[in-house]
Amino acid sequence: MKKVFLLFSLVFIYGTSFGQGKYEGKFEQLGSLLRSPNVYRTASGAPGPEYWQQRADYNIDVTLDDDRQTITGSETITYYNNSPNPLGYLWVQLDQNMRATDSHTPKVATSGMRDTLYSKWVPGIELNDYEGGYKIKSVTDENGNDLKYFINKTMMRVELPSVMNSGDTFEFNIEWSYNINDRMSDGGRSGMEYFPEDDNYLYTIAQFYPRMAVYSDFEGWQNKQFLGRGEFALPFGNYEVSITVPSDHIVASTGVLQNEKEVLTKKQINRFEKAKKSFDEPVLIVTEEEAIENEKEKAKDTKTWVYKAENVRDFAFASSRKFIWDAQAVKLSDDNTPLAMSYYPKEGNPLWEEESTKAVKNTLETYSKYTIEYPYPVAISVHAASIGMEYPMICFNFGRPDKDGNYSETTKYRMIGVIIHEVGHNFFPMIINSDERQWTWMDEGLNTFVQYRTEVEQYDNFPSRRGPAANIVRYMKGDKQFIRPIMTNSEQILQFGANAYAKPATALNILRETVMGPESFDYAFKEYAKRWAFKHPTPADLFRTMEDASAVDLDWFWKGWFYSTDHVDITIEKVRWFKYTEDKEKLENQVSVSASQEPGDASEGETALEDPMYFTITDTPDRYYGEFMNRVDDKEIVNKAKDKNFYEVTFENEGGLVMPIIVEFTYADGTTETQKVPAEIWRRNENVAVKTFITEKEVTRITVDPNLETADVNLENNVYPRKDVKSAFDKFKDGTD
């Protein structure tokens, strides 16, 4: 009894030391790595009973000057302080100042020299006298009185005349202008593209107005400077925007057009109404022939397009006389039929007319399945060269055929892929509104994961780049000095596409397919979307919700995939084959049971395990039953073991990332069987795990991760015997690294 008590005492002491943070193993709970739960954000991952967020409504008048390529605007912002805190000033984002002459963006960019440089990339050489950044004309209160303000690069502090208490609103005005950047020479997430053949411009206009920064319960003001990579954190609000452009321009925009009779022809209005009832195919509102005719002369007068949008976090538009325009209704439910629309110049055809709106429709359907039903009235894809960028209800996408209209399958699928991705951003982060400036992966990674689901479910044999586990192997096994954990700020990421897009998307795919299973994952993922739609989630809210809604402890998974740079490399280090025998001579003459058969022991032409080892079974001594009066049937145990094969397999974790062990047994008759061992097998020893498998048939080959589900970086050590590695993965000869 004393021995039993001592054993339990040791277990208690050892076990409690884990919880006290004395051991930081891979199965240690996230604990202090996550923000403590509070009245705003609960331990379950749901918004708390006192959750709050700010709101900003905008009334904007903006003019696009097609001769000077400038934007001039004025706005009235109504800011609502829903926080419990008094505010003495407001922070406004001036993202165009990234292009100002005193911007830090070019200063912090690294650059080098080589013996031959492309003309476009000669550092420090500019072909024009472009002057970027906002020119702020005035900042006034609702009565026209000047407000004090201070501009620090891409942020502007507006000082309030009196403290803004909880529940107060404050209305103020800003007048501004800026020069539109040429994306061909200057790059950028928005700007203009010039078409020399017909002397016209296509404008994709975003970050065009001073925008309120987010003030939140978890960070206060998000006023980290915009350097160009870390995108945007924005509050929700309602918008009314009047956009004045040349009268022959077509304007695509966030929101719903309010004055179609003033800006569209009767023919265009009739086609637009027809599109609202067309669920099978798009309706052309402006045809290619009409767009080509429209390019020929430039109107000198203007029209003003008025758009309204409710409960959005941003606003963007596109304008050109070159636009072809089509639209199609998408039936998400009986009372929810948003319009999928595309705007594109003739240079995008025939590809865009064939594929763009179809891709928008497919995206809305699939994302609505995995998150929430798309709540906005429109979703727009605009064609612009060499860009993929997203805003509420509208996005700008690349994918241009050759000049003769021909295009490759690569061009087609890359275009479809970017449209799915950018339209998908309506959900992450335009609705499920994470802080992109801080956690790029929360919008890019989650979005790329659902993009992959869309590609798989809506297209046959889509050549998906990101999502499948095998596709991340090259990155995962790379030099760790060039890799950062997923939980890294946007500006500090080294390999942006792999780290912020591919790895989190792959992790979620593995979590769905291999760790949790689709049913549990889908329910929890949708629960996260429902909880945080039109709110500001953090990583902790995602991690906690996924566990809360599934009853699966995933702290080990988040730690490995999101907080570390470990990779998956599980090897079969030893295999021992045992059979039961009552022959004492066999037991006495065999090699000691401590001997092992190494993975390469079987020679060419032999079966995997030519010679089994033998064991016997004896009755269990009474002392192992403790106080129990009944006994197991020793003879029945022997009878059940007689014809079985016992395979003791030693696995080693060489990559550091603990994962489930997926084991495929190939039998002598050619059949196969797969067993999945949960990741918790590593909980006592994170480096070595020994597991005995019992089979009816004799095994000729054992393979770890036979379907490339876990991103294991070295398949050479996944197979016993080693000589069978090629045949074990031959079906993936075009897809393995």
Automatic annotation (TrEMBL):
Residue intervals of the Peptidase M1 membrane alanine aminopeptidase domain: 361-561
GO molecular function: metalloaminopeptidase activity; peptide binding; zinc ion binding
GO biological process: peptide catabolic process
Keyword Protease: yes
Name under which the protein is recorded: Aminopeptidase
Protein source organism: Mangrovivirga cuniculi
InterPro entries, A to Z: Aminopeptidase_N-like_N_sf, Peptidase_M1_aminopeptidases, Peptidase_M1_dom, Peptidase_M4/M1_CTD_sf
Keyword annotations from UniProtKB, A to Z: Aminopeptidase, Hydrolase, Protease
CDD domains per UniProt: M1_APN_like
Domain of life, source organism: Bacteria
One Pfam family named in its UniProt record: Peptidase_M1
GO cellular component term, pick one: cytoplasm
